[in-house]
Amino acid sequence: MAWVTWRQHRAALAGVAVFLGALAVYLWLTGLQIHHAYATACHPASSLACTINFTGRYAVTVNVVRVFLQPVPALIGAFAGAPVLARELETGTFRFAWTQGIIRWRWTLAKLVLLALVVAAAAGAFSALFSWYLRPFSVAGYTIPFATDVFDLREVAFAGWTLAAFAIGALAGMLIRRVVPAIAATLAAYAGLALATALYLRQHYMTPLLTSKVNLPGTAWSVNQWYTKGGKFAFPGQGSQLVQAVSQLCPPRIGASNGSPAQCLSQHGYTQWTSYQPGSRFWPFQWIEGGWLLALSVLLIAATIWLVRRRAA
Question: What is the C-alpha separation between 238 and 247, in angstroms, rounded?
Answer without folding.
Answer: 14
